[in-house]
Amino acid sequence: EAQVTQNPRYLITVTGKKLTVTCSQNMNHEYMSWYRQDPGLGLRQIYYSMNVEVTDKGDVPEGYKVSRKEKRNFPLILESPSPNQTSLYFCASTPGLAGARGELFFGEGSRLTVL
Amino acid sequence: DQQVKQNSPSLSVQEGRISILNCDYTNSMFDYFLWYKKYPAEGPTFLISISSIKDKNEDGRFTVFLNKSAKHLSLHIVPSQPGDSAVYFCAASAQKTSYDKVIFGPGTSLSVIP
Fold first, then answer.
1. Hey, are the CB atoms on B104 and A98 less than 8 Å from each other?
2. Does the pLDDT at position A78 exceed 90?
3. Phi/psi at B93 (nearest 5 deg)?
4. A72 CB within 8 Å of a chain B CB
5. Within a 10 A sphere around the Cβ of B61, how many other Cβ atoms?
6. What is the pLDDT of residue B101?
7. Within chain B, which residues score under 70 in pLDDT?
8. For the segment A31-53, what is each residue's pLDDT rounded down to a tens digit?
9. Which of B65, B21, B93 lies closest to A94, judged by CA?
10. A104 CA to chain B: closest CA distance, Å?
11. Interface test with B, best of A24, A38, A43 (most B CBs within 10 A)
12. pLDDT of residue B97
């Protein structure tokens, strides 16, 4: 089954404790991206990757890091989480935006709470 | 400053009637527009899209209309069904200039009442 898998789905952590949210897709997609969803703000892009070893900042990259060592995986790293990073996070992928025109496949989401 | 706006946070419609969800955008470089549907505890799923060279695209009960001069698009659902109750996100991208970003609106929560 074609899918984007995120883990963990739910996490409660404390300020400053490093965490990683994993994202894996099995569709051989080139493009992957992370979004956060907050009330009234919709989905805002954090980071994206056009291909292996190619990453770039989205609209709200502060406090986050990513890496793309393999085509299928695109982990989101919070080195020192803060309460303002409490949010619902989505990973997404697509074969290539130029061809797919922004038709993204999303994971089920990871709800993160930072105390 | 939001480039994609959905000014109605919520909408309630009777089953069988038409649902109209609206979206406005500010960036004239946007040339491709999409609607996503999201159920609770699930990720958004692509619903329908439209290129700026068209003014209408239809897929079953779903039709998207684009008015480029007004920088406005709308999603029509006819007839509305209880299973359509979800949050709908409007999204836009500028394929010709910056195809690496898809900008989303804040979403409209649709409730279809049986």
1. no
2. yes
3. -145, 160
4. no
5. 14
6. 76
7. 95-100
8. 899 999 998 888 999 999 988 99
9. B93
10. 7
11. A43
12. 55
